[in-house]
């Protein structure tokens, strides 16, 4: 691990600095170096990583002048100066001795308080260049200075001038204070460097062609997709003016967008024989436009499906309905998740949505798809909890030699959403990792890779990394999916959203049972305090039961308390009533209870296969 902090010291202070680092456990390296080599040594240690240097006096000045890194100067604290002054007074052994601190500017704190306590006359003498030191010390001697406190160089010159001296040495308190400041700054730098690396990763591996421009429209950088789209290497493109590139068609719209101070979307461009749609975003720093970011996609990528294929996929349900603007949430707990999801949506990176079962994860995945460049292409959602592990491979990846291309094939150039990815079989995990890494997969008993372009979004109610530690999930896949994760809070932590969900599921129940029922405001307020242990499933079942049992078109607070949630008043209870709205669930619970929890016995009594029993148990969270 690279050190976050480098302490530059002379030989006199290096040993004490190493001891301080060992005692505090701070991630720092200590280097003994002269002024002329300090900058090179620090740069070598950091090797391009973010970090902070700590130094004192002449070494600090040298680093500030020669190294392109932040430097924290270890200014002598009052405590350090008091200890040095006490040592100097003891050395002089006279009443009201004259003591001089000699060093580089900003090296010392104010000595007035400690001078008064120790009954000494204290002055501070600053110098900039070493050549100034002899004259400065001669003047100190002429002023009847009894003792000089400073660096080893100062002490050596003081001896030549006939003055007694006390070397500064380690000055532990000031060095400790400088290390604390440097640690805070180093952490901030590392976080910023990580953010920059994430952005660079997204740009480099994006399927969009991305071009960064200077303010005068000169190309600053391009990603590999832009090199491919424009047919030139980065070396050939950088430094050229985008508007004058050979092969570029009409530039009037592009020039207007580049000169605009607002983002511009959907500009049609012609380059050579290819057609592109471009988005232009100005790069503004401190109210000054410093350049632009251009993202481009070929029309063939955006609109490569004819209407017949689109209608067929729509008929099969491979389409996402939800959008961020319509997401039913007002809770402050979920707003950061939505903002982060919307920021990731345009970029072709895998996303993992985490959280308890029965949250609006599928809806969030649809929002991400509809905010991406793949929104006009298929959205295929797969609930792995309804598919036995032995059937997953064929359903997802199709059969060799047949016309079945599988759900992954159906999602080609669109989005594949895997609900409860923690239930994915080992064979399917390997193929999913291959898709994410190489853009292809292999069917069983075949060595021929099948190319596929899909945006992968997954959800899980389990900790994938913990499963990987237990050898129940592929470690490499867990790390890949955890790269960008969105944690969704449970319903009990977002009470502001409960009225919207109640309204939505009451509407669904009205359509299902041909009976419309509404809740009074009092009842809704009461329901917002309910814990909803099983999240949206409990709200769905509550709505169904409320619609069926309601004696009239309006349900009030008393009816909710007495008939639907009778134990709600005891808010401290761990158990809450389970709302059952389906005869199938009742039969399933009864069979499991009568068989003593035996799945084989329950399947036999219900006259169904064990695979069917497993699916039904998953459906009602009885697994």
Short description:
The chain has 623 residues and is of the alpha/beta class. It has 27 helices and 22 strands. The strands form 6 sheets. A 5-stranded antiparallel beta sheet has the order 10-9-13-12-11.
Report on the architecture of this protein.
44% of the residues lie in helices and 17% in strands. It has 623 residues and is an alpha/beta fold. The strands form six sheets. It has a five-stranded antiparallel β-sheet.
Q: How are strands sequenced across the largest beta sheet?
A: 10-9-13-12-11
Highest CATH level, the class of the largest domain: Alpha Beta
Number of E-type strands: 22
Radius of gyration: 35 Å
Q: How much strand content do the residues show?
A: 15-25%
Number of domains as seen in the coordinates: 6
Query: What spatial form do the alpha-carbon principal axes imply?
Result: elongated
**Cα distance, first to last residue?**
44 Å
- Uncertain residue segments: 301-307, 569-581
Ordered list of secondary-structure elements with their pairings:
Blueprint: E1 5-9, H1 11-24, E2 28-32, H2 35-46, E3 52-55, H3 57-66, E4 71-73, H4 78-92, E5 98-103, H5 112-118, E6 121-126, H6 133-142, E7 147-150, H7 152-160, E8 164-167, H8 172-204, E9 209-214, E10 219-222, H9 224-230, H10 234-237, H11 252-259, E11 264-271, E12 274-285, E13 288-298, H12 299-302, H13 307-315, H14 335-344, E14 351-354, H15 361-370, E15 379-383, H16 389-397, H17 406-410, E16 415-419, H18 426-438, E17 440-441, E18 450-451, E19 455-460, H19 464-469, H20 475-481, E20 485-487, H21 498-513, E21 518-519, H22 521-527, H23 536-549, E22 554-555, H24 557-564, H25 583-594, H26 599-606, H27 610-619
Parallel strand pairs: 1-2, 1-3, 3-4, 5-6, 5-7, 7-8, 14-19, 14-20, 15-16, 16-19, 21-22
Antiparallel strand pairs: 9-10, 9-13, 11-12, 12-13, 17-18
Helix pairs in contact: 2-3, 21-23, 25-26, 26-27
């Amino acid at each position: 691990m690279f050190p976050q902090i480098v302490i530059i010291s002379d030989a006199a202070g290096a040993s004490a600095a190493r001891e301080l680092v060992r005692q505090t456990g701070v991630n720092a390296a200590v280097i003994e170096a002269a002024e002329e080599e300090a900058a090179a040594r620090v740069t070598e240690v950091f090797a391009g990583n973010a970090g902070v240097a700590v130094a004192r006096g002449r070494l600090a000045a040298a680093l500030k002048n020669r190294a392109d890194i932040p430097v924290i100067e270890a200014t002598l604290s009052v405590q350090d100066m008091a200890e040095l002054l006490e040592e100097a007074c003891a050395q002089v052994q006279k009443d009201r001795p004259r003591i001089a601190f000699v060093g580089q500017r900003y090296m010392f704190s104010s000595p007035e308080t400690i001078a008064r306590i120790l009954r000494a006359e204290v002055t501070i003498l600053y110098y900039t260049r070493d050549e100034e030191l002899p004259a400065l010390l001669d003047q100190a001697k002429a002023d009847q200075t009894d003792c000089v406190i400073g660096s080893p160089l100062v002490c050596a010159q003081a001896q030549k001038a006939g003055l007694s001296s006390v070397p500064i040495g380690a000055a532990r308190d000031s060095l400790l204070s400088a290390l604390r400041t440097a640690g805070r700054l180093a952490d901030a730098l590392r976080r910023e460097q990580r953010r920059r690396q994430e952005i660079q990763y997204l740009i480099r591996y994006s399927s969009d062609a991305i071009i960064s421009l200077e303010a005068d429209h000169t190309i600053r950088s391009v990603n590999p997709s832009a090199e491919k789209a424009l047919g030139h290497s980065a070396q050939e493109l950088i430094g050229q003016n985008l508007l004058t590139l050979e092969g570029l068609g009409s530039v009037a719209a592009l020039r207007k967008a580049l000169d605009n101070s607002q983002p511009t979307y959907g500009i049609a461009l012609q380059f050579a024989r290819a057609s592109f749609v471009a988005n232009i975003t100005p790069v503004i720093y401190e109210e000054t436009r410093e350049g632009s970011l251009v993202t481009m996609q070929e029309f063939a990528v955006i609109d490569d499906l004819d209407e017949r294929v689109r209608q067929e996929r729509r008929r099969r349900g491979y389409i996402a309905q939800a959008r961020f603007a319509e997401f039913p949430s007002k809770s402050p707990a979920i707003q950061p998740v939505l903002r982060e999801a919307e920021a990731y949506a345009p970029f072709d990176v895998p996303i993992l949505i985490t959280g308890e079962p029965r949250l609006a994860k599928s809806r969030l995945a649809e929002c991400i798809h509809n905010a991406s460049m793949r929104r006009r292409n298929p959205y295929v959602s797969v609930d792995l909890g309804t598919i036995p592990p032995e059937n997953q491979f064929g359903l997802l990846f199709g059969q060799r030699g047949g016309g079945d291309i599988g759900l992954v094939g159906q999602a080609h150039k669109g989005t594949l959403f895997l609900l409860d990815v923690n239930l994915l079989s080992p064979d399917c995990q390997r193929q999913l990792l291959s898709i994410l890494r190489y853009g292809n997969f292999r069917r069983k008993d075949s060595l021929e890779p099948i190319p596929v372009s899909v945006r992968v979004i997954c959800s899980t109610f389990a900790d994938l990394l913990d499963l990987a530690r237990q050898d129940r999930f592929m470690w490499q896949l867990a790390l890949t999916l955890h790269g960008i994760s969105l944690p969704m809070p449970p319903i009990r932590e977002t009470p502001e959203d409960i009225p919207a969900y109640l309204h939505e599921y009451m509407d669904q129940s009205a359509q299902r049972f041909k009976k419309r029922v509404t809740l009074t405001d009092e009842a809704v307020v009461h329901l917002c305090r309910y814990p909803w242990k099983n999240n949206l499933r409990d709200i769905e079942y509550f709505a169904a039961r409320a619609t069926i049992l309601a004696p009239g078109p309006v349900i009030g607070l008393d009816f909710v308390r007495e008939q639907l949630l009778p134990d709600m008043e005891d808010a401290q209870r761990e158990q809450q009533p389970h709302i059952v709205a389906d005869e199938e669930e009742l039969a399933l619970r009864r069979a499991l209870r009568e068989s003593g929890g035996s799945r084989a016995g329950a399947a036999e009594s219900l006259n169904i296969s064990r695979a069917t029993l497993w699916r039904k148990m998953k459906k009602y969270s009885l697994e």
